[in-house]
């Protein structure tokens, strides 16, 4: 009995990692119904020829191209924050493989080189996400300040201070858009979490937007996301 190559592909698409030939054999070969190891090898060869399945190290197979997958993991790593070349590691891949992939991505200008803030190290950043370099700069400065005994002010306290400054009358709401502009260094997630924390502490009241889903995605992004479809448009102090 033959094995349809599409069965192999479907199985591998549902696996989080490449499967060894031994595991594929266990999954497909069944001598009682006439499915032999030779049938598996025939189906595997056909899938490999069609490039719907790829050979991975240690006699393993997956539906993803190992080289393309390695490139993707490196680019994703360098999109979050800039990394030194030696700090980039990919599970299951040798340092030699990673180094060769980095060189290829640099040649293709998909990775860019940036200077470190100390020493002579070169940092790598995904070309489409230059923000990753500033994430490194921010982390570097925070670490230096921490070592100097200077702790970063909690964002919820910064929000409180700006509420007082922007509107001395505690009963007058301050729009979220106005407050975000005053705290432009804070990303959306941190800002929203800090504002919700102040509400949990019963220090502020958050005003719901009447029809957030009638807004454009860009305008809705400017509101505080309270989850569950709730968006907040203004903040009012409950305490002086």
What's the short version?
It is built from ten helices and ten strands.
Characterise this structure.
The chain has 240 residues and is α+β, with helices and mostly antiparallel strands. It has three domains: 5-62, no CATH class; 66-147, Arc Repressor Mutant, subunit A (Orthogonal Bundle); 155-237, no CATH class. It is built from ten helices and ten strands. It has helices spanning 5-13, 21-28, 37-49, 66-80, 95-107, 131-147, 155-166, 176-182, 188-200, 217-221; strands spanning 19-20, 54-56, 60-62, 83-84, 111-115, 122-126, 174-175, 204-208, 224-225, 231-237. Strands 7, 8, 9 and 10 form a four-stranded antiparallel sheet that branches. A three-stranded antiparallel sheet has the order 1-3-2. A three-stranded antiparallel sheet has the order 4-6-5, sandwiched between helices. A hairpin with a 3-residue loop joins strand 2 (54-56) and strand 3. Helix 1 crosses helix 3, helix 4 (66-80) crosses helix 5 and helix 7 crosses helix 9. It starts with a helix and ends with a strand. The model has no long low-confidence stretch (mean pLDDT 90).
Key attributes of the depicted protein:
10 helices, four-stranded antiparallel β-sheet, 240 residues, Arc Repressor Mutant, subunit A
Topology:
Elements: H1 5-13, E1 19-20, H2 21-28, H3 37-49, E2 54-56, E3 60-62, H4 66-80, E4 83-84, H5 95-107, E5 111-115, E6 122-126, H6 131-147, H7 155-166, E7 174-175, H8 176-182, H9 188-200, E8 204-208, H10 217-221, E9 224-225, E10 231-237
Antiparallel strand pairs: 1-3, 2-3, 4-6, 5-6, 7-10, 8-10, 9-10
Helix pairs in contact: 1-3, 4-5, 7-9
């Amino acid at each position: 009995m033959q094995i349809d190559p599409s069965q192999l592909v479907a199985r591998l698409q549902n696996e989080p990692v490449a499967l060894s030939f031994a595991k594929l054999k266990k999954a497909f070969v069944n001598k009682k119904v006439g499915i032999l190891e030779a049938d598996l090898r025939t189906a595997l060869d056909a899938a490999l020829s069609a490039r719907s399945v790829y050979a991975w190290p240690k006699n393993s197979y997956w539906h993803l191209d190992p080289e393309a997958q390695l490139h993707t993991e490196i680019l994703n790593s360098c999109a979050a924050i800039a990394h030194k070349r030696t700090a980039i590691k990919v599970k299951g891949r040798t340092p030699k493989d990673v180094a060769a992939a980095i060189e290829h991505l640099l040649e293709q200008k998909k990775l860019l080189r940036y200077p470190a803030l100390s020493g002579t190290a070169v940092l790598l950043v995904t070309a489409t996400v230059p923000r990753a370099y500033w994430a490194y700069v921010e982390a570097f400065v925070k670490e230096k300040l921490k070592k100097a005994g200077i702790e970063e002010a909690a964002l919820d306290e910064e929000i409180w201070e700006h509420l007082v400054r922007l509107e001395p009358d505690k009963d007058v709401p301050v729009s979220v858009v106005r407050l975000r502009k005053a705290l432009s260094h804070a990303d959306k997630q941190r800002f929203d979490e800090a504002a919700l924390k102040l509400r949990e502490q019963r220090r502020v009241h958050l005003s719901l937007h009447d029809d957030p889903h009638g807004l454009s995605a860009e305008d809705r992004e400017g509101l505080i996301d309270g989850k569950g479809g709730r968006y907040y448009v203004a903040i009012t102090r409950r305490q002086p």
